[in-house]
Specification:
Layout lengths: L3 E7 L6 H8 L5 E6 L6 H5 L6 E3 L6 H10 L5 E4 L4 E2 L2 H13 L6 E10 L5 E12 L6 E2 L5 E2 L5 E10 L11 H11 L6 H13 L3 H14 L4 H17 L3 H10 L8 H13 L3 H11 L18 H13 L3 H14 L4 H13 L2
Parallel strand pairs: 1-2, 1-4, 2-3, 6-10
Antiparallel strand pairs: 4-7, 5-10, 6-7, 8-9
GO molecular function: transferase activity
Keywords: Transferase
Protein name: Glycosyltransferase involved in cell wall bisynthesis
């Protein structure tokens, strides 16, 4: 069977590191920990799982640290995680099965990344990341901030999910990445289109909406971005406009996303919501139905499952009932119940239809 090294970069992760390593210790042959300057018990905890702990002087460059961690691996394949990531038991079992059956020619394995879960453990937001690469291919990380891993060759898209577990002690948004980008600009360094996008994200998250909109616009005008980042830039431009009370700008940027691909479910639902607020229920129903065109399908890029399942059905229940199509409303409600029976609005509708006795 192929061997695999887990490579991680860490700093002050005493609260979450053990949970991460405990979830994968029996899945990998080697654990490589690169510490970038911890002042807490991070290295002490890491030592309980591996002797392969290395120090790396932090130089405001995540790719440099990740590439250093990869250089210390000795197995056939390399897997990477962050300290606040875990593999849940069902994904550990799926990993074991995949690894036992992995074909010799595989170069890359992608996994889902569940960045948040609902109260029942279902993902609220997910996307794919390339988590395992063949070491002999010498794939490299690029980008000082929001780094990405180059890849190629024979790629397997697995059903395994890595789950992000947020640090409970962290209640504020870190300004670390914002400061790194600002230091680049102060030094006269030019931002790549990708840097523009992620710098704009940092500005948005810190409430600097005007400047964020400027960088999102420059990013889109560069016409050099990944299509998924282009779509998200439109979404975030819309969010900035909404935060400033500019609803026309909000609407415009939702539709702007259609320039880059077919309408994605999230945008369809948001447009439907605008039309619902205007009581244009027939037009709103059209957009909710468009969102459901992706029902049961894996979306490219980033995905919010609610927008292809219970939410458009919930809204269709409202729209159909308001235009007198009660049988259609009940069918939509039944579908919403199948996905999220305990949602307060769906429970309200259940009570309504019980009284209505359609």
């Amino acid at each position: 069977m192929h061997t695999i090294s887990l490579c991680m970069i860490v700093k002050n992760e005493e609260e979450v590191l053990a949970g991460c390593l405990e979830s994968v210790r029996d899945l990998v042959d080697e654990i490589v920990i690169v510490d970038t300057g911890s002042t807490d018990r991070t290295k002490e905890i890491a030592a309980q799982y591996t002797p392969r702990i290395f120090d790396f002087e932090w130089i405001n460059d995540f790719s440099a640290a990740r590439n250093y961690s990869f250089s210390k691996a000795t197995s056939d394949y390399i897997m990477w995680l962050d300290a606040d990531d875990v593999l849940l038991p069902k994904d550990q079992e799926a990993f074991r099965k995949l690894w036992k059956e992995l074909a010799d020619e595989v170069d890359v394995v992608s996994m889902f990344y569940h960045t948040s879960l609902d109260e029942k453990g279902n993902p609220l937001y997910l996307y794919r990341r390339n988590r395992i690469v063949r070491r002999s291919k010498n794939f490299r990380w690029h980008g000082a901030v929001h780094e990405y891993l180059e890849f190629g060759g024979n790629i397997v898209a697995s059903e395994i999910a890595v789950t992000h577990r947020k640090n409970k002690k962290t209640h504020t948004i870190s300004d670390r990445n914002l400061r790194i980008y600002e230091s680049y600009i102060a030094s006269g360094r030019s931002l790549t289109p990708r840097d523009m996008f992620y710098y704009a994200n940092e500005l948005k998250d810190h409430g600097k909406f005007d400047l964020a909109k400027s960088y999102y616009t420059d990013f889109l005008h560069s016409e050099a971005g990944w299509v998924e980042d282009n779509i998200r830039a439109c979404q975030y431009l819309a969010d900035c406009c909404k935060a400033e009370g500019d609803m026309e700008g909000y609407r415009m940027h939702l539709f702007q996303s259609f320039r880059y691909d077919r309408p994605r479910p999230e945008f369809c639902c948001l447009i439907g919501d605008l039309l619902t607020e205007d009581r244009n229920y027939e037009a709103a129903a059209y957009w909710y139905r468009q969102a459901l065109d992706y029902e049961g399908k894996e979306l490219p890029g980033f995905s919010v499952p609610a927008y292809t399942t219970w939410y458009p059905y919930l809204q269709l229940t409202l729209c159909y009932s308001r235009i007198g199509l009660m049988e259609e409303a009940k069918l939509a409600h039944d579908k919403a119940v199948s996905y999220h029976p305990d949602h307060p609005s769906i429970l309200h509708n259940t009570a309504f239809f019980e009284k209505f006795k359609l």
